[in-house]
Amino acid sequence: MRRITRIATVGIASAALALSATACGGKSSSDSSSENGGKVAIAYDIGGRGDQSFNDAAYAGLVKAEKDLGVEGTEAEPTEGEGDPDKVQRLTELARAGNNPVIGVGFAYAPAIAEVAPKFPKTTFGLIDDTSKTAKNIANLVFNEEQGSYLAGVAAAKVTKTNTVGFIGGVETPLIKKFEAGYVQGVKDTKANVNVKVQYLTQPPDFGGFSKPDLGKAAAQGQLDAGADVIYAAAGLAGSGSIEATSKAGKWAIGVDSDQYNQKGLAAYKNAILTSVTKDVSGAVFNLIKSVEDGKPQSGEIRYGLEQNGVGLAASNPAYTKMTDVTAAVDKAKAAITAGTIKVKTAP
C-alpha cells in the first residue's frame, strides 16, 4: 500500500492529522512497519510526481522497493510557493510516522534535512543532488550530470543541420549549470563552430522554472525561431513544454533525468525526443531503501557517474540507434570520460 500526503502549512498538529487521514482504509501512520518490510517516504521536489522527469524517476525507485523489498511507501507532494519551514514540517511528520528512510528529492530539501535529521538520529535521511549538509544519518545521493550532458552535446553537434542548438535551464543554480557546462563542452569539442543558445527560465529564489511548461515552451520557441534545431532542456516539468514546441516544429529534443521517450505523458512527442540524459535517481532511491532494510544504511556522499552507469544517454528512440555515426561518437566520448582523458567541466 502507498499513501500520498499533502501537508499544508497549518501547524504541526494539523499536519499530523492530515498525514494520518491519508492512511484511512489501510494502516495508520503510527504503525512502525508494514507486514513485509519497513515504512519509507519520499518528499517530492517542485513539480511533484507526474513531471515526466526527476520526481518520476524517484517514484520509480520507490515502486521497485515496494515490489522487491515489501516496504510500505508514502509520497509527500510539495505545495505551491512553499519555503523551508514547510519542508521542515513535512519531513518531521514523515520521520515521526516511523518512515525510514525519509528521502528529500532535490537540493531544495538541504536546509530542512539539516534541521530535522539531528532530531531523529535513528532515521536515515536521503538528500538527492546536494552535498552541503552532512551528518551520520544523512546520505547525499549525487550524480555527475555534466558527464551525461557532455554526451548529449556530442549527439547534438552531430545531428544539427543549422549549426545552432539550444540549452534551457529551469532555474539558474549551480546544479543546473553543471548540465549547461557539460552540454556546451560536448558540443564544442565535437564541432567548434556550432552556436549554443543558453536560456534560464527563472532565477533564485523563484524556482517556478522547474514547474511551468508554458515557460519551457516559450523559451524553446524563441530558440527555434533563432535557428536552433536541437534543444536540450534541464527544467523538470517545464521541460515538457520545450519538448512539445520542438516536436511541433519538427526538430530534435533531448530529454533529461528520465528516459523521456518512454514517458507516457510525452507519448505524443516521443518521435522528436532524440535521446535523454538519464540520472539513475530510481536506482539511488532503491539502493538507499535497501541499505536501510539490510541494516547497513548508506551515509555520506554516494556518487553516481558514467563509470557506475549512474548517468548516461538513453537509446530508446529507434531513429537514434540507426544514427551509427552519432552513437559511435557518443560511445567514444563515454570511453574517454571514464578513462579520464576527457575532463568534463562542472561550471560554464
Automatic annotation (TrEMBL):
Tell me which UniProt keywords the record has, alphabetically.
Cell membrane, Lipoprotein, Membrane, Signal
- CDD domains linked to this entry: PBP1_PrnA-like (cd06354)
Q: Which residues form a coiled coil?
A: none
Annotated ABC transporter substrate-binding protein PnrA-like domain residues: 45-332
Question: Where mainly located?
Answer: membrane
Write out the GO cellular component annotations: plasma membrane
Pfam families for the chain: Bmp
Instruction: Give start-end of the signal peptide.
Output: 1-23
Q: Into which family does the record put it?
A: Belongs to the BMP lipoprotein family.
Name of the protein this chain belongs to: BMP family ABC transporter substrate-binding protein
Q: What is the lineage of its organism?
A: Bacteria, Bacillati, Actinomycetota, Actinomycetes, Kitasatosporales
